[in-house]
Structures are given as C-alpha cells and as structure tokens.
Amino acid sequence: MNESHNDNLTPKEQYDLKKKKKDQTKGKEQLKEKINATPKKIGKFILYILITVGIVGGIGWFVSLVPNLPPTSMQNHSEDSPPAHIVTERIPDSIQRHMLEHADGGTRQGDFPGIIIQYNCDDYECEPDLVQKLTALVEEYPKNVYLAPNNYDGKIILTRLGKREVLDSFDAQIIRDFIE
Q1: What does the radius of gyration of the chain's CA atoms come to, in whole angstroms?
Q2: Measured between alpha carbons, how far is 22 from 66 in angstroms, rounded to an integer?
Q3: Closest Cα to residue 147, out of 85, 89, 99?
C-alpha cells in the first residue's frame, strides 16, 4: 500500500495494518524455517528407520544362528499320542514331549520312556533307502521307540528325555546304543 492511502486511516487501523504486515512477514519467516528444517527432520526419520531395521535384522540373524531342534523335556506336553509308532507325518512338539515322558501314554510300572528317531530328507540329502533302514531298525524295538519325519536342523535326530543326538548319516550301532 502507498503512504497517502495510509494517511486516510485512523491510528487504530494503521496499527492493525502494521500488525497484519508484521504477522505476515513473521508467518513467511516461520514457513521458510520449517521448509529449511524439513530435510533435517527427514534425515533423522530415515536414520531412525535404518537403525530400527538394523536392530530387527540383527535380532533375526542372531535367532537364525540358534538351531531348530526337537524338545528333550516334558514341559508343556499334551496328553495326546501319535497314531502309530512309525508315522509319515511330523509329530508336533507337544506330543513329542508326551512321548518322552512315557510310551503309549501309560505311567504304569514297566513303561519305558519314549525314544523318538526323526529324519529330515527335505532339507538334507538322504540316501534312497534311509527311511527303510530306520523303519527296520525301529521295528526291532518295543513300541516306546518312535520314527517320524521332521523339519529340524539335522538329518537324523535321536531324542529321549533329557538327551538328544544329531547324526549326519545312518549308523545302526549309534542308534542302538542311544535306544538301549
């Protein structure tokens, strides 16, 4: 606005006009400050995201180092039993814990703790007759010895209460010693 136009205004109107101009100038300066600060905020946000992804990734990597193995304790077991002693389906962990406790779900005198022999031919290269060899061996023992496939980190895993052994290949004598 020009000066001659301001002369026609009352002092209050002139004050209000100056205040309005000052507020506009201040608003523009604040907007410039926000615009200038935006890259810093974005940078911090990206840094926080990268740190978070790094931490989560690190935890995931660390967890992947821990092998996935079958249980050796009875804790959190179910009272269910597998449909047979030689099965072609994986036995859930809770049922494995029950089998480790006792064979056939019995607790009578003379029941033997369960022994579970598991094989993983999905993730490991197995000889063509591995399952047949394991089946024949398990059939030599009472019904407290179980055979099942698994998805654990081991080609052949022998499990009994409080003990586990992982084999890279079939060894009948090691398996017999473990069972007996």
Answers
A1: 37
A2: 65
A3: 85
Q: Which pLDDT does position 105 carry in this prediction?
A: 39
* Axis-axis angle for helices 172-179, 130-138 (nearest 10): 30
On whether residue 99 sits in a domain, the answer given is yes
- Which residues constitute the domain of residue 20? 3-65
- Cα separation of 47 and 112, whole Å? 58
Structural domains in the chain (count): 2
Residue 144 lies in a domain: yes
**CA-based end-to-end distance of the chain:** 104
- The bridge status of strand 156-160 relative to strand 163-167 is antiparallel
Return mean pLDDT, the chain.
82
Distance CA 147, CA 65 (A): 27
- Looking at the DSSP bridge assignments, the partners of residue 71 are none
* Residues 6 or more apart whose Cβ sits within 8 Å of residue 77: 94, 95, 97, 98, 100, 101
Tokens encoding 112: 């033997």
Instruction: With beta carbons less than 8 A apart as the criterion, state whether 70 and 55 touch.
Output: no
Strands 145-149 and 115-119: parallel
- Residues in contact with 85: Cβ distance below 8 Å, sequence separation at least 6, in sequence order: 138, 143, 145, 146, 147
Of the ranges 2-6, 15-19, 115-119, the best mean pLDDT one: 115-119
